[in-house]
Design brief:
The protein is mainly alpha-helical and 440 residues long. The chain has helices at residues 25-29, 41-65, 79-112, 120-133, 138-150, 188-198, 202-223, 250-274, 276-302, 317-321, 335-344, 352-357, 363-379, 391-400; strands at residues 3-6, 9-12, 16-19, 185-187, 309-310, 410-411, 422-425. The chain starts with a strand and ends in a 15-residue tail after the last strand.
Length: 440
C-alpha cells in the first residue's frame, strides 16, 4: 500500500476499488458446465487410494534411506551429523505425508458437502471414517461448515474468520475529524494512537501467524477461536447442546464424538504398544502439518485486504460466495512447488471460489468449473485471484488485516495505522445504501 503525507495527514494513494457483485445465483451456476456437477463414488475413491499410496511410498522410502545414514554407508565429519541427517529425513517425511494427508482431509471435506458421490450414506460413512482418523468431529464440523458456506463474509452469521471490529479490539470510537471511515486517510497523531494500541512489531506479527498455524484448528474446535463472536463463551464442536446445533442434530454430534474417542483410543493403544516416540514420528508430526495446512489454506482463502465483509443489510449469497480468493498453494516457492501444493491438496486452494459457488462440485471437476466461472466474473470486472499461498503471505495478511469498523454495511480490513487497502464500488445500476460515505 502506497501512502503520502501532507499537512499532518497520511493518505492512501493506490486504494483498490473493489466491485461489489450484483450477480444472481443463476448467473453464477449457469456459467459452469453441467457435467461438472456429476459425482462418482468410484472416481472419488481412486483419489483416496492415490493419496494413501503416496503416503505409504513416502514411508517406505524413508525407512529405506534411514539405515543408510550410518558410518558404514556415508562419511560425515561428526557423529552429530548422523543424528541431524536422520532428523532431516523424518522431518521431510512429516512434511510430505502431512501435505498428502491434507489431500485426504479435503476428500473428507467433500463428503460433508455430499460431493463425494450421489449417495448420502456413502458420503457420510466415508467422511466420518476419514475425518475421525484425522481428529475431526465429522458431523459437527460438517454442520458448522455448511453454515459458513451459507453465510460467508457475513459479520454475524459466518462461522469462522470473522473480523474483529474497532470496539472489539479495544479502540476508541471513530472520530470523523481525524480519520476516514473507509480508511483513505488519517491524521498522524490518530495513526500513532492506533499503532500504539494495536502493536505491529515484527516479532509480534511473526508470533501471531505462528501460533495461529500451530494451534488455530484445535482451538477453533475446542473453544471457537476465530469463530462467530456472538456465540457464548465455552462454545465448542463437541457438545450436542452447543448453540451452532439444532436439537434434532444431537445424535450426529454424539456420533462425531464417538469417532474422536475411537481415534484417541487408537493413538493411546499405539503409543502403549509401540512407544510414543514412534507415534510422534509417524503420525503426530504429519497430523500437525495437516492442521497447519488446513489453517493456512482457509485463512488465506477468506482473509485479505481486498476481500469485503458484509452486515445483513448488504449481504447476499452470491456476494458471500465471491468474498473469497483462489490462491496457488506454495506457488511463492516456484512453479514446481506450486504444482505439488495444488496436486497434493486436490486444488482446494486454487478452485475455492467455484467451491463456494457450488460446494457439490467434486474436486476433479472443480478446475474446469473454476475456469468457466472466472470467465463469467471477468465479464463483470471481478477478479478473485490472490497472491500465492504460503508463509510469507500469511505474515503479510496478518499485518494488513487488523480490524473493521463498527459502522457501515460493507467493510474492508484496516491495518494497525488505520488505513485500508480497499474500498467498495457498487455497480452503477444497483440501487443500494451501503452505509458508507465513500467521499468521507
Amino acid at each position: 500500500m502506497k501512502t503520502t503525507t501532507k499537512d499532518g495527514v497520511t493518505s492512501v494513494v493506490d486504494q483498490n476499488e473493489v466491485i461489489i457483485p450484483d450477480l444472481s445465483i443463476k448467473d453464477l451456476l449457469s456459467a459452469i458446465p453441467a457435467h461438472c456437477y456429476q459425482r462418482s463414488a468410484f472416481r472419488s475413491s481412486l483419489y483416496i487410494l492415490g493419496d494413501a499410496l503416496v503416503i505409504a511410498g513416502v514411508y517406505k522410502a524413508t525407512k529405506y534411506v534411514e539405515p543408510l545414514l550410518t558410518p558404514e554407508h556415508i562419511s560425515l565429519p561428526s557423529p552429530f551429523y548422523y543424528s541431524l541427517a536422520s532428523f532431516a529425513l523424518w522431518s521431510l517425511y512429516g512434511f510430505a505425508t502431512g501435505l498428502f494427508g491434507t489431500g485426504l482431509w479435503v476428500i473428507a471435506h467433500e463428503c460433508g458437502h455430499q460431493a463425494f458421490s450421489e449417495s448420502k450414506t456413502i458420503n457420510n460413512l466415508v467422511g466420518w471414517i476419514l475425518h475421525s482418523a484425522l481428529g475431526v468431529p465429522y458431523h459437527s464440523w460438517r454442520i458448522t461448515h455448511g453454515k459458513h458456506h451459507a453465510s460467508t463474509a457475513h459479520m454475524t452469521q459466518d462461522q469462522v474468520f470473522v473480523p474483529r471490529t474497532r470496539s472489539q479490539v479495544g479502540l476508541p470510537p471513530l472520530n470523523p475529524d481525524g480519520e476516514s471511515l473507509v480508511g483513505t486517510s488519517i491524521r498522524n497523531e490518530v495513526m500513532r494512537e492506533l499503532y500504539d494500541a494495536l502493536g505491529d512489531s515484527p516479532i509480534g506479527a511473526l508470533w501471531g501467524p505462528t501460533s495461529y498455524l500451530l494451534f488455530g484448528w484445535p482451538m477453533y474446535l475446542i473453544r471457537n477461536a476465530a469463530g462467530q463472536r456472538r456465540y457464548p463463551s465455552g462454545t465448542n464442536h463437541f457438545a450436542p447442546s452447543a448453540i451452532m446445533f439444532a436439537p434434532h442434530q444431537s445424535g450426529q454430534i454424539v456420533i462425531s464424538d464417538v469417532g474422536i474417542l475411537i481415534w484417541l483410543g487408537a493413538l493411546a493403544y499405539w503409543s502403549y504398544s509401540s512407544g510414543f516416540s514412534t507415534v510422534l514420528r509417524l503420525y503426530v508430526v504429519p497430523y500437525l502439518w495437516v492442521n497447519h495446512w488446513l489453517v493456512l489454506i482457509t485463512f488465506l482463502q477468506h482473509t485479505d485486504p481486498i476481500l469485503p465483509h458484509y452486515r445483513a443489510e448488504e449481504f447476499t449469497f452470491p456476494r458471500g460466495a465471491l468474498a473469497t480468493l483462489d490462491r496457488n498453494l506454495l506457488g511463492d516457492l516456484g512453479s514446481f512447488m506450486g504444482w505439488i501444493g495444488a496436486t497434493a491438496t486436490h486444488g482446494i486452494s486454487e478452485t475455492h471460489v467455484a467451491h463456494h459457488v457450488s460446494s457439490k462440485i467434486p474436486h476433479y471437476h472443480a478446475w474446469e468449473a473454476s475456469a468457466a466461472l472466472k470467465k463469467r466474473l471477468a465479464a463483470s470486472g471481478i477478479h478473485l485471484e490472490g497472491r500465492p499461498g504460503g508463509w510469507a503471505e500469511v505474515y503479510r495478511v496478518f499485518r494488513e488485516c487488523k480490524f473493521v469498523e463498527d459502522e457501515g454495511n460493507i467493510l474492508f480490513y484496516k491495518n494497525a495505522r488505520g488505513l485500508a487497502a480497499s474500498r467498495p464500488i457498487l455497480p452503477a445500476d444497483a440501487a443500494s445504501d451501503s452505509g458508507i460515505e465513500l467521499d468521507k
